[in-house]
Design the sequence.
């Protein structure tokens, strides 16, 4: 059987592009952040279902991942939702931060602050400090024990740059 050189070249190029796209996928869950160790990650339907369960209704848009960090000094959970565009991530950031305003939720002491040119939403509730922000096409929600929150946030944020 004679194969067309064009077909073979096309397949080789396709395989190279697939490899490049897989190898450049950003890992948003480092093994260690601020002495907390990554103990579990979930994604796909399991992450989607957990996020919706936390909200008692469907809220997850896009694909999601969750990373759980722990050690003897505390714990943190990072929720990430991936959107098709930066604009979509920003739209859902705005909706989320408006919905968890003081009159609508269990969260207190909400504030926005600038961190390295990015708008970060910070609040407290359920025994944790929460940071919500977008980066590229992702929307992040970090829930971390308050006594380690600032250091954890800073180290995590620098790890995704």
Sequence:
């Amino acid at each position: 059987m004679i194969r067309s050189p064009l077909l073979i070249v096309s397949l080789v190029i396709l395989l190279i592009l697939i490899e490049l796209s897989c190898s450049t996928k950003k890992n948003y869950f480092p093994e260690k952040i601020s002495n907390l160790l990554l103990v579990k990650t979930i994604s796909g339907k399991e992450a989607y279902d957990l996020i919706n369960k936390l909200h008692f209704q469907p809220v997850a848009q896009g694909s999601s991942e969750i990373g759980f960090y722990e050690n003897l000094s505390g714990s943190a959970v990072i929720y990430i939702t991936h959107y098709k565009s930066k604009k979509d991530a920003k739209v859902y950031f705005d909706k989320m931060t408006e919905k968890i305003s003081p009159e609508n939720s269990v969260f207190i002491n909400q504030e926005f602050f600038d961190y390295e040119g990015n708008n970060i939403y910070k609040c407290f509730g359920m025994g944790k400090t929460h940071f919500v922000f977008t980066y590229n096409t992702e929307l992040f929600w970090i829930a971390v024990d308050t006594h380690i929150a600032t250091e954890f946030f800073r180290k995590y944020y620098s790890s995704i740059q």
Q: What stands out?
A: Residues 26-159 form a domain with the Protein Transport Mog1p; Chain A fold (CATH 3.40.1000.20).
